[in-house]
Write the structure tokens for this entry.
Amino acid sequence: MNDPLMSIHIVTWNSMRFLPELLKSITEQTFKEINVLIIDNASSDGVENFVKEHYPDIVFIRNARNLGFSAAHNQGIRYAIEHWSEGALQNRFILLTNPDIIFTPTYLEELMNATHTHPHVASFGGKLLRAFGENTGDEVFKQTVRSDRLDSVGLHPHRNCTVTDRGAGELDQGQYDEETFVFGISGALVLLRAASLEDVRYEDEILDHDFFAYKEDVDLAWRLQQAGWDALYVPRAVAYHYRGMYGPEKSGLWQRLRNHRTKSSLRNFFSTRNHWLMLIKNIRTGHFFLALPWIGLYEGGRFFYVLFFEHSGFRTIKETILLFPVMLKKRTQLFKKAKRSAKELRHWFV
């Protein structure tokens, strides 16, 4: 592995229907100081042969089983950081991208331009729009429709301590065309400063291994904020996302719960369990009591819905309880490194 300014990491799990389009868009980038690393979670769709045949310069790591999104990305992050000197980490970057992303040609260049003038920023993200695949009769997703409907323009925390994708579902009419600081960036596509990841590292974890998948990006954003790092939304950087699990940002409790019924039981399990684990880890005691009316109403409704209406309800509650001591241990280490006060963080949750 050379010493590029950026290491691009893709975690795959039977992702061949998306991967060729993503890799093609990476090769078309105007910014070239990159390495690409694929961490595969025991796919059975021929991804390894495809990459070795068409992209022999890509580093390919194959896991014998599905380790999950978080653990696989941690493999890649550790691999990249070990190939950089400690003194270089402030100016080295890791781009985490889902396989179902398509970059516009200047995406990386626009983000890297922003890094030069914002040394205190840990995470950078652009305008993520939704892509749709048309079924042409022979193959699903053979023809791509790049829409003007927003997927994410940063992470948006709410008073009840839920976090949604800012702008999700809205038509892009220029309402998010101003560069601005945000709480965090969606893990579907985020550029991270290597030094900041070392700053919030817990043992060998950067993303939380216990989360497996879903909400690990929100947890990382919260931890980076605690540690004194900022996140920047850069609207000039544009990409597209085939999102498998989404809803409009502006929706109430019951609408979100109804949306759960259209999604897989496994996704609902990880989404709900990891949200509760994230609260245990990150929310300050004072903040919790100040927000208790909103948290209590929302999480109380979610608890009873999960318990009585979701197949994985008992497992969700059981695993949250079992992981409670682990989250408390991580919480202790997190708060030891905290550089921002509860008041500084609380302003996001309004």
Notes: DSSP finds twelve helices and twelve strands in the chain. Residues 253 and 301 are 8 Å apart (CA to CA). The radius of gyration is 20 Å.
